[in-house]
Amino acid sequence: MNGNIGSELLVFTDLDGTLLDFSTYSCNAALLSLKRMKECGIPLVINSSKTRAEIETMPSLTSLSGAFIVENGSAIFLDECFPLPHGIETERSGRHRVIMLGRPYEDVLGGLRQARIQCRARLKSFSDMSTEEVSRITGLDLESSLRAKEREYSEPFIFEGDEKELDCLVAQLTERGLSCIEGGRLSYAIGSTDKGRAASMVRELYRAAFPDIRWRTVALGDGPNDAAMLRMADVAVVIRRPDGSFLDYEPEPSQQVIISSKPGPAGWNEEVSRLIDELCIG
Ligand SMILES: [Mg+2]
Q1: 83, 59 in Cβ contact below 8 A?
Q2: Same domain, 200 and 267
Q3: What domain range includes position 132?
Q4: CATH for 160
Q5: Nearest to 67 by CA among 197, 194, 206
Q6: Are 162 and 33 part of one and the same domain?
Q7: Cα of 43 to ligand 1 centre, how many Å?
Q8: Residue 46: pLDDT band by 50, 70, 90 thresholds?
Q9: CA of 239 to the centre of ligand 1 (A)
Q10: The pairing of beta strand 235-240 with beta strand 44-47
Q11: Of the listed 14, 16, 222, 226, which one is catalytic?
Protein backbone atom coordinates (compact mmCIF):
# COMPACT_ATOMS: atom_id res chain seq x y z
CA MET A 1 0.00 0.00 0.00
CA ASN A 2 2.89 2.32 -0.76
CA GLY A 3 1.34 3.88 -3.86
CA ASN A 4 3.50 2.12 -6.44
CA ILE A 5 1.96 0.29 -9.37
CA GLY A 6 2.30 -3.14 -7.73
CA SER A 7 0.16 -2.09 -4.81
CA GLU A 8 -2.96 -2.36 -7.00
CA LEU A 9 -2.93 -6.14 -6.73
CA LEU A 10 -5.08 -7.61 -3.97
CA VAL A 11 -4.44 -11.33 -3.61
CA PHE A 12 -6.70 -13.92 -1.98
CA THR A 13 -5.39 -17.42 -1.50
CA ASP A 14 -6.44 -20.85 -0.36
CA LEU A 15 -3.86 -22.68 1.76
CA ASP A 16 -4.02 -26.50 1.56
CA GLY A 17 -2.94 -27.72 -1.90
CA THR A 18 -2.50 -24.13 -3.10
CA LEU A 19 -0.01 -22.05 -1.09
CA LEU A 20 0.80 -25.07 1.10
CA ASP A 21 1.94 -28.38 -0.38
CA PHE A 22 -0.87 -30.97 -0.36
CA SER A 23 1.22 -33.55 1.54
CA THR A 24 3.87 -31.64 3.51
CA TYR A 25 1.87 -28.43 4.23
CA SER A 26 5.01 -26.44 3.43
CA CYS A 27 5.00 -23.11 1.54
CA ASN A 28 8.75 -23.16 0.86
CA ALA A 29 8.33 -23.38 -2.91
CA ALA A 30 6.45 -20.06 -2.85
CA LEU A 31 8.88 -18.08 -0.68
CA LEU A 32 10.32 -16.06 -3.55
CA SER A 33 6.96 -14.64 -4.62
CA LEU A 34 5.92 -14.09 -1.02
CA LYS A 35 9.08 -12.02 -0.54
CA ARG A 36 8.35 -10.00 -3.69
CA MET A 37 4.78 -9.35 -2.50
CA LYS A 38 6.10 -8.07 0.79
CA GLU A 39 8.61 -5.80 -0.96
CA CYS A 40 5.90 -4.40 -3.27
CA GLY A 41 3.38 -3.98 -0.42
CA ILE A 42 0.85 -6.26 -2.12
CA PRO A 43 -1.75 -7.44 0.39
CA LEU A 44 -2.22 -11.20 0.71
CA VAL A 45 -5.47 -12.34 2.30
CA ILE A 46 -5.48 -15.96 3.49
CA ASN A 47 -8.88 -17.55 2.72
CA SER A 48 -8.88 -21.09 4.04
CA SER A 49 -11.03 -23.86 5.48
CA LYS A 50 -8.57 -23.85 8.38
CA THR A 51 -9.48 -22.57 11.84
CA ARG A 52 -8.35 -19.33 13.43
CA ALA A 53 -6.10 -21.36 15.76
CA GLU A 54 -4.33 -22.89 12.75
CA ILE A 55 -3.97 -19.68 10.75
CA GLU A 56 -2.68 -17.71 13.72
CA THR A 57 0.40 -19.94 13.76
CA MET A 58 1.38 -18.51 10.35
CA PRO A 59 2.28 -14.88 11.13
CA SER A 60 4.64 -14.66 8.17
CA LEU A 61 1.64 -15.24 5.88
CA THR A 62 -1.03 -13.28 7.74
CA SER A 63 1.22 -10.25 8.24
CA LEU A 64 1.06 -9.45 4.51
CA SER A 65 -2.39 -7.89 4.98
CA GLY A 66 -4.62 -6.72 7.78
CA ALA A 67 -7.14 -9.52 7.28
CA PHE A 68 -7.62 -13.27 7.04
CA ILE A 69 -10.65 -15.47 6.42
CA VAL A 70 -11.27 -18.70 8.34
CA GLU A 71 -13.38 -21.85 7.97
CA ASN A 72 -14.48 -21.48 4.34
CA GLY A 73 -15.72 -17.89 4.56
CA SER A 74 -17.29 -18.17 8.03
CA ALA A 75 -15.50 -15.19 9.55
CA ILE A 76 -13.14 -12.35 8.66
CA PHE A 77 -10.43 -11.54 11.21
CA LEU A 78 -9.13 -7.97 11.00
CA ASP A 79 -6.10 -6.42 12.65
CA GLU A 80 -6.97 -3.82 15.27
CA CYS A 81 -5.49 -1.10 13.07
CA PHE A 82 -7.40 -2.05 9.90
CA PRO A 83 -9.26 1.13 8.87
CA LEU A 84 -12.92 0.08 8.98
CA PRO A 85 -15.66 2.21 7.42
CA HIS A 86 -18.56 3.27 9.65
CA GLY A 87 -21.49 0.92 10.01
CA ILE A 88 -19.52 -2.34 9.89
CA GLU A 89 -20.36 -4.48 12.89
CA THR A 90 -17.48 -6.36 14.44
CA GLU A 91 -16.85 -8.31 17.60
CA ARG A 92 -13.61 -8.03 19.48
CA SER A 93 -11.64 -11.23 19.94
CA GLY A 94 -8.12 -10.94 21.35
CA ARG A 95 -6.19 -8.52 19.16
CA HIS A 96 -8.64 -8.97 16.29
CA ARG A 97 -11.98 -7.58 15.27
CA VAL A 98 -14.20 -10.24 13.77
CA ILE A 99 -16.96 -10.07 11.17
CA MET A 100 -18.98 -13.29 11.39
CA LEU A 101 -20.65 -14.40 8.15
CA GLY A 102 -21.36 -18.00 9.13
CA ARG A 103 -22.96 -19.52 12.23
CA PRO A 104 -21.61 -20.40 15.69
CA TYR A 105 -20.15 -23.88 15.94
CA GLU A 106 -22.83 -25.20 18.35
CA ASP A 107 -25.57 -24.37 15.79
CA VAL A 108 -23.66 -26.07 12.99
CA LEU A 109 -22.85 -29.17 15.03
CA GLY A 110 -26.44 -29.45 16.29
CA GLY A 111 -27.82 -29.10 12.75
CA LEU A 112 -25.41 -31.68 11.37
CA ARG A 113 -26.32 -34.16 14.12
CA GLN A 114 -30.05 -33.79 13.47
CA ALA A 115 -29.61 -34.02 9.69
CA ARG A 116 -27.46 -37.11 10.05
CA ILE A 117 -30.03 -38.89 12.25
CA GLN A 118 -32.89 -37.90 9.93
CA CYS A 119 -31.09 -39.31 6.87
CA ARG A 120 -29.33 -42.20 8.66
CA ALA A 121 -26.29 -40.80 6.89
CA ARG A 122 -23.01 -42.59 7.39
CA LEU A 123 -20.39 -39.99 8.19
CA LYS A 124 -17.69 -39.26 10.67
CA SER A 125 -17.10 -35.69 11.77
CA PHE A 126 -14.19 -34.06 13.63
CA SER A 127 -16.15 -34.04 16.89
CA ASP A 128 -16.37 -37.87 16.69
CA MET A 129 -12.63 -38.19 16.09
CA SER A 130 -9.67 -38.20 18.42
CA THR A 131 -6.75 -35.89 17.66
CA GLU A 132 -4.84 -38.97 16.45
CA GLU A 133 -7.60 -39.81 13.96
CA VAL A 134 -7.66 -36.25 12.63
CA SER A 135 -3.91 -36.46 12.23
CA ARG A 136 -4.17 -39.75 10.33
CA ILE A 137 -6.82 -38.41 7.94
CA THR A 138 -5.29 -35.01 7.28
CA GLY A 139 -1.58 -35.82 7.50
CA LEU A 140 -1.17 -32.98 10.01
CA ASP A 141 1.05 -33.52 13.06
CA LEU A 142 -0.69 -33.91 16.42
CA GLU A 143 -0.25 -30.31 17.50
CA SER A 144 -1.68 -29.00 14.23
CA SER A 145 -4.52 -31.55 14.43
CA LEU A 146 -5.43 -30.22 17.85
CA ARG A 147 -5.65 -26.73 16.40
CA ALA A 148 -7.72 -28.06 13.47
CA LYS A 149 -10.21 -29.37 16.04
CA GLU A 150 -10.61 -25.90 17.56
CA ARG A 151 -13.70 -25.20 15.45
CA GLU A 152 -15.64 -21.97 15.81
CA TYR A 153 -18.01 -21.99 12.82
CA SER A 154 -17.99 -25.22 10.80
CA GLU A 155 -17.65 -29.00 11.15
CA PRO A 156 -15.51 -31.07 8.77
CA PHE A 157 -16.62 -34.63 8.08
CA ILE A 158 -15.81 -37.69 6.03
CA PHE A 159 -18.83 -38.99 4.20
CA GLU A 160 -19.08 -42.78 4.08
CA GLY A 161 -22.63 -43.21 2.71
CA ASP A 162 -24.24 -43.40 -0.75
CA GLU A 163 -25.58 -40.68 -3.04
CA LYS A 164 -29.12 -40.92 -1.64
CA GLU A 165 -27.87 -40.30 1.89
CA LEU A 166 -25.82 -37.36 0.68
CA ASP A 167 -28.78 -35.77 -1.16
CA CYS A 168 -30.87 -36.19 1.99
CA LEU A 169 -28.13 -34.72 4.18
CA VAL A 170 -27.69 -31.66 1.95
CA ALA A 171 -31.48 -31.09 1.91
CA GLN A 172 -31.72 -31.44 5.69
CA LEU A 173 -28.82 -29.06 6.26
CA THR A 174 -30.39 -26.54 3.88
CA GLU A 175 -33.67 -26.78 5.78
CA ARG A 176 -31.75 -25.77 8.89
CA GLY A 177 -30.14 -22.76 7.21
CA LEU A 178 -26.83 -24.58 6.81
CA SER A 179 -24.93 -25.75 3.77
CA CYS A 180 -22.49 -28.45 2.76
CA ILE A 181 -19.16 -27.55 1.18
CA GLU A 182 -16.82 -29.99 -0.51
CA GLY A 183 -13.11 -29.38 0.13
CA GLY A 184 -9.92 -31.11 -0.92
CA ARG A 185 -9.96 -33.94 1.64
CA LEU A 186 -13.13 -33.32 3.63
CA SER A 187 -16.69 -32.02 3.43
CA TYR A 188 -17.92 -29.27 5.74
CA ALA A 189 -21.20 -28.40 7.41
CA ILE A 190 -21.29 -24.63 7.60
CA GLY A 191 -23.61 -21.59 7.80
CA SER A 192 -24.82 -20.16 4.50
CA THR A 193 -21.55 -18.54 3.48
CA ASP A 194 -18.56 -19.36 1.29
CA LYS A 195 -15.08 -18.13 0.47
CA GLY A 196 -16.42 -15.90 -2.32
CA ARG A 197 -18.80 -13.98 -0.07
CA ALA A 198 -16.08 -13.36 2.51
CA ALA A 199 -13.47 -12.35 -0.11
CA SER A 200 -15.93 -9.91 -1.74
CA MET A 201 -16.52 -8.33 1.64
CA VAL A 202 -12.79 -7.93 2.29
CA ARG A 203 -12.40 -6.37 -1.16
CA GLU A 204 -15.14 -3.86 -0.24
CA LEU A 205 -13.28 -3.05 2.97
CA TYR A 206 -10.11 -2.41 0.98
CA ARG A 207 -12.01 -0.24 -1.50
CA ALA A 208 -13.49 1.80 1.33
CA ALA A 209 -10.19 2.10 3.17
CA PHE A 210 -8.15 3.03 0.07
CA PRO A 211 -10.55 4.81 -2.31
CA ASP A 212 -7.78 6.11 -4.58
CA ILE A 213 -6.49 2.65 -5.42
CA ARG A 214 -8.00 0.57 -8.21
CA TRP A 215 -7.59 -2.95 -6.84
CA ARG A 216 -7.02 -5.77 -9.30
CA THR A 217 -8.19 -8.86 -7.46
CA VAL A 218 -6.38 -12.17 -7.84
CA ALA A 219 -7.68 -15.41 -6.29
CA LEU A 220 -5.75 -18.69 -6.15
CA GLY A 221 -7.28 -22.05 -5.28
CA ASP A 222 -7.33 -25.73 -6.13
CA GLY A 223 -10.58 -27.21 -4.78
CA PRO A 224 -14.35 -27.04 -5.31
CA ASN A 225 -14.62 -24.93 -2.13
CA ASP A 226 -12.49 -22.29 -3.90
CA ALA A 227 -14.82 -21.84 -6.90
CA ALA A 228 -16.86 -19.02 -5.31
CA MET A 229 -13.64 -17.15 -4.42
CA LEU A 230 -12.23 -17.68 -7.92
CA ARG A 231 -15.47 -16.30 -9.40
CA MET A 232 -15.25 -12.94 -7.58
CA ALA A 233 -11.72 -12.20 -8.81
CA ASP A 234 -10.44 -10.30 -11.85
CA VAL A 235 -7.81 -13.00 -12.26
CA ALA A 236 -8.65 -16.57 -11.20
CA VAL A 237 -5.64 -18.83 -10.79
CA VAL A 238 -6.52 -22.53 -10.65
CA ILE A 239 -3.65 -24.36 -8.98
CA ARG A 240 -2.83 -27.77 -10.39
CA ARG A 241 -3.00 -30.84 -8.11
CA PRO A 242 0.05 -33.06 -7.52
CA ASP A 243 -1.28 -35.63 -10.05
CA GLY A 244 -1.45 -32.92 -12.75
CA SER A 245 -5.26 -32.67 -12.77
CA PHE A 246 -7.05 -29.40 -11.95
CA LEU A 247 -10.42 -28.08 -10.86
CA ASP A 248 -13.07 -27.99 -13.59
CA TYR A 249 -13.73 -24.27 -13.27
CA GLU A 250 -16.32 -22.34 -15.32
CA PRO A 251 -14.88 -18.82 -15.82
CA GLU A 252 -16.92 -15.67 -15.32
CA PRO A 253 -17.31 -13.39 -18.36
CA SER A 254 -14.43 -10.89 -18.74
CA GLN A 255 -12.39 -12.72 -16.14
CA GLN A 256 -8.84 -13.86 -16.81
CA VAL A 257 -8.29 -17.51 -15.90
CA ILE A 258 -4.88 -19.08 -15.47
CA ILE A 259 -4.24 -22.79 -14.90
CA SER A 260 -0.89 -23.13 -13.14
CA SER A 261 1.63 -25.26 -14.98
CA LYS A 262 3.12 -26.57 -11.75
CA PRO A 263 1.21 -27.97 -8.75
CA GLY A 264 0.78 -26.44 -5.26
CA PRO A 265 3.14 -23.76 -3.96
CA ALA A 266 5.53 -24.12 -6.93
CA GLY A 267 2.61 -23.22 -9.25
CA TRP A 268 1.57 -20.45 -6.86
CA ASN A 269 5.10 -19.03 -6.92
CA GLU A 270 5.33 -19.04 -10.71
CA GLU A 271 1.93 -17.49 -11.40
CA VAL A 272 2.13 -14.80 -8.71
CA SER A 273 5.62 -13.87 -9.88
CA ARG A 274 4.30 -13.54 -13.44
CA LEU A 275 1.42 -11.31 -12.29
CA ILE A 276 3.81 -9.08 -10.37
CA ASP A 277 6.07 -8.83 -13.47
CA GLU A 278 3.12 -7.95 -15.70
CA LEU A 279 1.96 -5.20 -13.41
CA CYS A 280 5.40 -3.79 -12.85
CA ILE A 281 6.12 -3.68 -16.59
CA GLY A 282 2.71 -2.02 -16.86
MG1 LIG B 1 -7.22 -26.40 -1.20
Answers
A1: no
A2: yes
A3: 105-191
A4: 3.30.980.20
A5: 206
A6: no
A7: 20
A8: very high
A9: 9
A10: unpaired
A11: 14
